[in-house]
UniProtKB/TrEMBL annotation:
<feature type="signal peptide">
    <location>
        <begin position="1"/>
        <end position="19"/>
    </location>
</feature>
<keyword id="KW-0732">Signal</keyword>
<protein>
    <recommendedName>
        <fullName>Scaffoldin</fullName>
    </recommendedName>
</protein>
C-alpha cells in the first residue's frame, strides 16, 4: 500500500510550499535474480534495475512481468510501477501531478545509468524528485537566494550560490552543466541536507538534476553565470574561464596551481643623461636600459630572456640585444646567423632579421615587428637563450612590437593555463579568442591542439626555478561536454 505523508512547511524566505510528500518508487539492484519472463499468473511486487534495464519482478521467483530499457546518452524521466514502466518525458507537456509518486529519474551516459534527483516541470507545475525517494509538488516563493541554495526562487529559477558567485540563478531554458556551491537549504532535492556543497547540476528543458555522471578534469567555470563547460567550448565562445574544476562522482573541486612566486623586484637605477638615446634598448654598465625619448635619461629595465631592439648608436651591428637565461639573466649584443631559413637555428635571428621559433628546413622565421605569441620547442633546450631542456615541452615567445622586444614568458606572465594552436601551423602561433586562427579551429575542433602549462616544471620547493620560464606541453585528455539536454562523451584526440 502506498504511503502518503502529509507535511506542512512554514519556512520564512524559503522557496518550498508543499502540501503532500509522496513515496517515490523503490528501485534496487536486481542482483542475482533470474530475470526471465514470468510464465504464469505471478504478480510483480518489486522493482529493480540491471544492465540499464528496469524490471517489475515477482520477488520470490525472480521472474519479471514488465521490463523497459533506459535510453543511453540522455536523461530518462520514467513512470514506474509494478504493472507499468514507461518513459514519462512526453507527458511533461501535460499535468502529471496525479502521477508524481510514480516518477524516477535516470541519467545515462554512453555506457551506464544512475538514478538522479532534482527538479522537473510539466505544463505548469514544478516538482521536487528528492534524494531519499520523496516526490512532491512545489510552489517557489523565495524572492532572494539568501539561505535557499539548491531550491527554486519565485521566478522558478534554481539558486546556484550566494557567496561566490552572488545570487546567480539558472532557468530551465538555459540548458547545460552548472556549479551549485555553498551551504544548501535542507529542502533541496539534490542532497536533502543543509551542508556546504560544490556539485554539478545538469539543466534540461524540463529537468534540473544532480549530475553524478560528470567525470572531467579542469572544466571551465564562469563566475558570470556559474556555467561549467569543456575548455575547448569555452575557448570558442565569449564566456571567460574564471576557474577550473575537477568533477567526479557528483562533486567538484577547484583545480588550483600552488607555486608561489617571489615578490617582484623594483628598479631604481637611472642612467646618466650622457647615455640617452631613443627608440630602443641599450646596455649601460652591464645593465639593460630602455631609451624612449631623445634628451631624456634611459631607464633601467629588468631583463627577460629574449631579444630587444637596440638603439641606433653604432654599438649594435645586428640591431638587437640578446638576454640569456641561467643563474641570472645577462644581456649582450646579439649576432645574426648567416642563413636564409631556420634549419638548425632555433631561437636565433637569421639574415632577414626574423627569429626562428623552430628549426625546420625552409621556414623563414617570424617577423619581430608584428605582435603575436608563439610556442617554441624546448624539448632539447634553446642554447642561445639559455633555456633549460624539458622533455616534450614548449616555451612561449611573446613578440611585443609596441615595446620593441620579443621575450620568453615567465611563469608570472602566463595567466593562461591553456593555449590553443592550429595543428598544421609549424610556427605554432597561439590563437586568441575571436581572431582568424581561433575562428578556424573553433569551426573544426579536430584541427585544434591544446597545450597546458606545466607549473610543476617551474617549481622547486614551492618556488620557481632560477629561470622562471613557463613550460607548456601538448595535452591529451578526454573531455565530457554537454550537448543540448543530454550528456555525452567527447574524446579530444590531439595530434593523432
Amino acid at each position: 500500500m502506498e504511503l502518503i505523508i502529509v507535511v506542512t512547511l512554514f519556512l520564512v524566505g524559503s522557496q518550498l510550499v508543499s502540501a503532500t510528500q509522496e513515496d517515490a518508487p523503490e528501485i534496487d539492484d536486481c542482483g542475482e535474480k533470474s530475470l526471465t519472463s514470468c510464465s504464469g499468473e505471478e504478480i510483480a511486487d518489486t522493482l529493480c534495475i540491471k544492465n540499464n534495464i528496469l524490471y517489475a519482478i515477482e520477488n520470490t521467483s525472480g521472474c519479471y512481468k514488465v521490463e523497459q530499457a533506459l535510453a543511453l546518452s540522455q536523461v530518462n524521466i520514467m513512470s514506474v510501477t509494478t504493472t507499468s514502466i514507461t518513459d514519462a518525458s512526453s507527458s511533461l507537456s501535460d499535468d502529471i501531478s496525479s502521477d508524481i509518486a510514480k516518477i524516477a529519474i535516470y541519467n545515462c551516459n554512453a555506457e551506464s545509468c544512475e538514478r538522479s534527483y532534482g527538479f522537473i516541470k510539466d505544463s505548469g507545475n514544478y516538482y521536487s524528485i528528492a534524494k531519499g525517494n520523496k516526490n512532491e509538488g512545489v510552489t517557489p516563493t523565495g524572492g532572494s537566494c539568501d539561505g535557499i541554495i539548491g531550491t527554486l526562487d519565485v521566478s522558478n529559477e534554481l539558486c546556484l550560490g550566494y557567496s561566490d558567485p552572488n545570487s546567480i540563478t539558472v532557468g530551465f531554458t538555459e540548458t547545460g552543466d552548472y556549479l551549485l556551491s555553498g551551504t544548501t537549504a535542507a529542502t533541496n532535492p539534490f542532497t536533502t541536507d543543509a551542508t556546504a556543497h560544490t556539485i554539478p547540476v545538469l539543466v534540461g528543458t524540463n529537468y534540473m538534476i544532480h549530475d553524478t555522471l560528470l567525470d572531467v578534469e579542469e572544466y571551465c567555470y564562469s563566475s558570470t553565470d556559474a556555467s561549467l563547460m569543456s575548455r575547448e567550448d569555452n575557448f570558442c565562445n565569449e564566456t571567460n574561464c574564471s576557474k577550473y574544476y575537477n568533477c567526479s562522482e557528483g562533486t567538484c573541486e577547484e583545480d588550483t596551481e600552488s607555486c608561489t612566486l617571489p615578490p617582484a623586484g623594483t628598479c631604481t637605477a637611472t642612467a646618466d643623461t650622457n647615455n640617452t638615446c631613443e627608440g630602443g634598448y641599450a646596455i649601460i654598465s652591464e645593465a639593460l636600459y630602455k631609451c624612449t625619448t631623445s634628451g631624456s635619461a634611459c631607464t633601467a629595465e629588468t631583463p627577460q630572456i629574449g631579444y630587444y631592439k637596440a638603439v641606433d648608436n653604432g654599438q649594435y651591428s645586428s640591431g638587437y640585444i640578446i638576454c640569456k637565461g641561467g643563474a641570472s639573466v645577462t644581456c649582450s649584443a646579439a649576432s645574426i646567423e648567416t642563413a636564409d631559413d631556420c634549419n638548425g637555428h632555433l631561437g636565433k635571428i637569421i639574415t632577414s632579421g626574423n627569429i626562428c621559433v623552430n628549426a625546420i628546413d625552409g621556414d623563414t622565421g617570424i617577423d619581430l615587428t608584428a605582435s603575436n605569441k608563439y610556442l617554441m620547442d624546448a624539448g632539447n633546450g634553446i642554447t642561445d637563450l639559455g633555456i633549460t631542456s624539458k622533455d616534450s615541452s614548449f616555451v612561449v615567445l611573446n613578440v611585443d612590437s609596441t615595446n620593441n622586444k620579443a621575450t620568453i614568458l615567465t611563469f608570472a606572465e602566463t595567466t593562461e593555463r591553456y593555449f590553443y594552436v592550429k595543428q598544421d601551423d609549424d610556427k605554432k602561433t597561439i590563437a586568441v579568442k575571436g581572431d582568424t586562427i581561433a575562428n578556424a579551429i573553433c569551426a573544426n575542433k579536430s584541427i585544434m591542439d591544446e597545450y597546458k602549462r606545466q607549473y610543476q616544471d617551474s617549481c622547486v620547493n614551492n618556488s620557481l626555478d632560477e629561470t622562471t620560464v613557463a613550460y607548456y606541453k601538448k595535452n591529451r585528455t578526454k573531455n565530457k561536454a554537454t550537448i543540448g539536454d543530454y550528456s555525452a562523451i567527447i574524446v579530444l584526440l590531439c595530434g593523432l
